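=== Structure Prediction Worksheet ===
Name of assembly: unnamed complex
Input type: mixed (protein and possibly other molecules)
Chain count: two
Listed entries:
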Amino acid sequence: MAVKWWGWGDPDKTYDLTHRPAAWPYLQAKLGVRDEVQRSPVALDDIQLPSSRLDAAVLEALTEVGCSTRGQDRISHAYGKSYRDLVRVRAGHVPNPPDAVVFPTNEAQVEAVLALAARHGFAVIPFGGGTSVVGGLEMPADRAERPFVSLDLARMSALIEVDPVSMTATAEAGIMGPRLEELLQAQGVTLGHYPQSFEYSTLGGWVATRSAGQQSTRYGKIESMVVGLRILTPAGVLETRPVPAASQGPDLNQVAIGSEGLLGVITRVTFKVHARPPRQDYRALVFPGWAQGQAALRAIMQSDRRPATLRLSDQAETRALFKLREASKPSAWKAWGQKAFGWYLSRMRDVHMEDACLLIMGFEGDPEQVDQDRDWCVSLCELQRGVSLGHAIADRWYASRFDLPYLRDTMLDRGVMVDTLETSGLWANVPAIYEAVIKALEGAISADGLDPLVFCHVSHPYAAGASLYFTFAARQQLGQELEQWARYKRAATDALLAAGGSLSHHHGVGIDHAPWAREVLGDQGLAWIKGVKAAADPDDIMGPGRIIGS
Amino acid sequence: MAVKWWGWGDPDKTYDLTHRPAAWPYLQAKLGVRDEVQRSPVALDDIQLPSSRLDAAVLEALTEVGCSTRGQDRISHAYGKSYRDLVRVRAGHVPNPPDAVVFPTNEAQVEAVLALAARHGFAVIPFGGGTSVVGGLEMPADRAERPFVSLDLARMSALIEVDPVSMTATAEAGIMGPRLEELLQAQGVTLGHYPQSFEYSTLGGWVATRSAGQQSTRYGKIESMVVGLRILTPAGVLETRPVPAASQGPDLNQVAIGSEGLLGVITRVTFKVHARPPRQDYRALVFPGWAQGQAALRAIMQSDRRPATLRLSDQAETRALFKLREASKPSAWKAWGQKAFGWYLSRMRDVHMEDACLLIMGFEGDPEQVDQDRDWCVSLCELQRGVSLGHAIADRWYASRFDLPYLRDTMLDRGVMVDTLETSGLWANVPAIYEAVIKALEGAISADGLDPLVFCHVSHPYAAGASLYFTFAARQQLGQELEQWARYKRAATDALLAAGGSLSHHHGVGIDHAPWAREVLGDQGLAWIKGVKAAADPDDIMGPGRIIGS
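=== Predicted Assembly ===
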């Protein structure tokens, strides 16, 4: 599947602002963009790559596995899709791409690559869909001299088995989201895992990074879907026995899950599947404020009812989402109706759109259960003065839910930095984490003399707490983009950890978050992970520097 | 709290067969007991203990922590409550008790004990409620020469905090089940964790062994309840950050959970709590056979409805449970009603009590949800020809659900071996695991020329599979009790592993299951656990030999 080497997703697709007349004027005003800039990625052919450091004998041995040293393959495997990655690749700054990209077709070939790595001293970085946003695919700068190959699992992408009795399925790790769902749904089942990267990410990548999908409230995060897996480490294979639950020591699945390529190559996963839900019901609500919306989410998650999706935007994100709407020419009647509804909201329900917080709430399952759960959850929202807006907004969100990453490319073309970061915390800590991160980002951007745009949504609520997903934007400081970004990232990460948040809820640690790993995991936590690493990968072949740093 | 040193639970309580007139004749006939025997535990004072191997200076240092070398303390900390343990302790066979029992009151004292252990070379085995049934509390025979202390957490038993916003609570690990629930329920919440050992086991013990409660279908196994914990290892403390979910590398909670004292001492746990359920509804049903009952459980667990308890007995267990009923003198009307109902079951519903399988199905939660879920689940049962028996049998089960362990003492008094073992597997494997274990146990017991009584129930069903809990009984081969038991245990464990089961669903590995750990975890799995062990406990102080063997 062709993907942009310099941006997100389908090369033929852009996030077009021309159909969204309010968007750019809004962003211009918010970000203080006066001088329009137009910046384009360098041409692929203009990127100067260092030549591969692997010697001819090694490359020949790798060729038996399927190996490329073509420039485009090395470039497209050099980075993930973070803001930092895109700034570098668009500028043609690729000083340390993989020395080769290998495409094994089976486990024996993966083992052959690991054996060659042990013998010749190069490192191996597993590659799924290439959508990491935490530096999960590159060699850390302090190990730049080490040759390495990117091990792309694209050719290990078979659905091996669906077990309709146990409602589990087994697939090779390299299978992409759409293909996996296509094959599963042809057999009447679904995994139900739809991260925003769904179209371009893989089963193995989800497992390696503890991914979360947009319906996680119903289907769980990926770590709760896995019942067994195979991971090939340099020291041998670990295959966990697929059972629904067990008491046989530490849970080794939960060590391999989230290992981010540090321990080995996840080649095969057995996971729970579900009957395709006969009914989906997605609707939007507005709350008079952020606190009320959070209270409703908490009440729902601490009840026995279970939506599939709960996504609550703060005031600033709600305003931004409405500005990003596509143009439509409402009929005079519809325009009048919208106006009347706005009057009703503000006069009768005391919900003022400028302070309102938008909730997308979705249900999936058997029709009777969906209806009961929805009515119950709507009631809990109404107790917090939430007002239903019906299906239209939610259905638009659902239809375009994988599109937002494209907007970043459009912004980069115009000299605007946009990045996201996320965390999670107990409900008791959520308000403080929220305040701390907003303040840290706005403060750091303002300190650069720039106008900040920072907003947030709750994307994955639980009974005990929630994840918070922040977006921050500012004009780029041209020529200083990475330093600029690093300041904001540092300020936000320091702030969220100090307020009790996790280092990440579903993006992972990678290289980017590794500097904070000791703070959040502690000396013992790092020592435990290093202990497993020493057992699985005594020669330090796998994924140098991720999670545990250098 | 006083507990029997030679048996289960409350010293003043026995499982009295005189009120159960059908029980003993049934067991006599089943087990071929012709010559009644009467066997009693030795007197406590008659047990000869080796003297403590710790020198005076060490004992003096331990005394500052709170330390006992009294015979009764050493005996009551020498074993858990497995059949093997009770056979030994009743015979006065306690050749290797702890050299001292320490009772720290705080973490500093735990650290002091670990530091002394490192300095003086003795080992430390953590002790919660002492109800291990897998040899979790003793020194393995091949390390018998190593001095060790039993570290009893009974004095670290405070409920530290209830967070009503996040619906979490934090408690010290040594708190016992009843006290924990008493304190939580006083604040309107519950943990909802009721293992059969509930009355005599601790929070820390549950976490260390991956315990499962009788309402696990609603509240989860203990590993899904924990949001954070503290574990003191010889190399330092690991405190995991309490968050609802995260993506920050391997899940270290899930390494500490199930570590069974191998890595360190769990001192503090933060866990989810739930509002006390306003309604409980427990009822019994019968199915015409085992396959129909399993099909109903699978249908329920793969639906969106969620009971609290699902406990399905096979035919043999159903028969045995009815034989264990207390005597009652039904009125003539009631007797006639029972007879008529039996006629209705067999003639109209084709359910014959001699082949019937009993299901206990319980619901907890808000009344509306309980009613809806119950009606739905009863319908799914009816599709499998299940027939509701109403509340009485289920309420009796509920009221006496912690009593069954007492029966083993009564059986031991009469020269009868009774033990249980459990496993878990995917639904696709459940029938094969069941058949294999029944056949292995019946075969091994018959090969000794004895009459076997073997039965089973599904105690913890999941969407993907279930746990199977087996009970096996036979006449004791007097003087050969341990060898006899070991043959049956070995046959059953070999069989369940070969059929795809887990080594244990909720009892753990301990010493007893460690010989099979390599088969089920693989070389890499063991190597990973040893890697963590080397990081946490480089001098091998903690829990020698459990899980990973020697």
